[in-house]
Every structure is written in structure tokens, then in C-alpha cells.
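agent> Task received from the user: take the single chain below, predict its 3D structure, and emit C-alpha cells. No templates, no multimer pairing.
agent> Plan: (1) validate residues, (2) run structure prediction, (3) serialize to C-alpha cells, (4) report one or two observations.
agent> Step 1 OK, no nonstandard residues flagged.
tool_call: predict_structure(input=
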Amino acid sequence: MKEKHEEELTIQSVKIKAGSPAISFRKPNLKDGKDIWSLVKTTSNLDLNSSYSYILWCDKFADSSIVTVRDGEVIGFVQGFIHDTPKPTLFVWQVAVSETARGEGLATRMIQTLLKRTDVAYIEATVTPSNLPSNGLFQSLARKYHSTYEIRRYIEAEDFPSLEDEEEEKLYRIGPIK
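)
tool_result: status=success, residues=178
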């Protein structure tokens, strides 16, 4: 039994560079919610939801989300849920990467790990035109999975309350995932 446990730990922990601390990729849990809220708060390009929403998400949608930890610190999070219209689809709500881990391909690796754990045919996400890193991420994922993707109009700026200065959200649909 010990060998199997050690094998599972090896699969979940991956080193970025020789000598660097291991990063674990795992399902989030209720206790991760506050650290994920803090991570999202420090990013400059994500909408911050209530702390309660992240705590709840980590409990109710853990199977379709992923948290990444290095040296006991949450450095990445993908918030997702699966819907079945028309085929099983992972909708990626938010992708957060700590400033200390940017440039390491962590966002891609989190989504790839999440895809291995779920049985989905497509990925969807909404992205603002000005969010160049996210646009690049989803186009890159389509290439990695040899899938087609489409970008279409989805939520217009005028759909948001007039008090908010929001940009339109384009819908990415990638798949089928091979």
C-alpha cells in the first residue's frame, strides 16, 4: 500500500526547475477558499468574488476545479464547472496564478491536469478582448489538443449594470478535446 501512495504523490507533484520546490496539483477543499480569495485579490485582471463564494466553490465544485500549492502556499487556481449542453463541457470561470509563479506555464498545466481528471469533450471560457494572457492561453490549449476553437460574441458591455465599467466577454469554445 505504501508504494501506491508514494506513486500517487509523484504523479501529483511536479518540479518546475532543478532544485525548485515541488508543486502539487489537487482538488480544492473548503479550507483553501480563503487562500484562493487572497490569491485572486492580488491579481490585477480578475474580478474578485466574495470570500464566501470561493469557500463554497471549493466545497461544491471541487471535482471541476484545481488548486496548485508550492511550499504550503496556494499559487494557482482554476475555477470551473461542468455542464452537459450539448456534450460534457468544462466551463473555466477563472484562472489565477500568483505573481511568483507566472511565466512557468502553470495555467496550462492546471487545465491539462484538470482535463485528465474530468471526462469532457469541450472547454468553454469567457474572455475580454483586452485580456491577452487568457486569450493566448485558450488558443494555445486548442493547439495542444489539436482541436478547433471558435470565439463568438457572448456578453456585451451594455449587458452589465450601468454603474460598472465592464468590457464585453467573448465566448471561447474549444474541442472536441482529443
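agent> Step 4: summary for the user.
The beta strands are 13-15, 22-26, 66-70, 73-83, 89-97, 122-127, 148-155, 169-175.
agent> Done.
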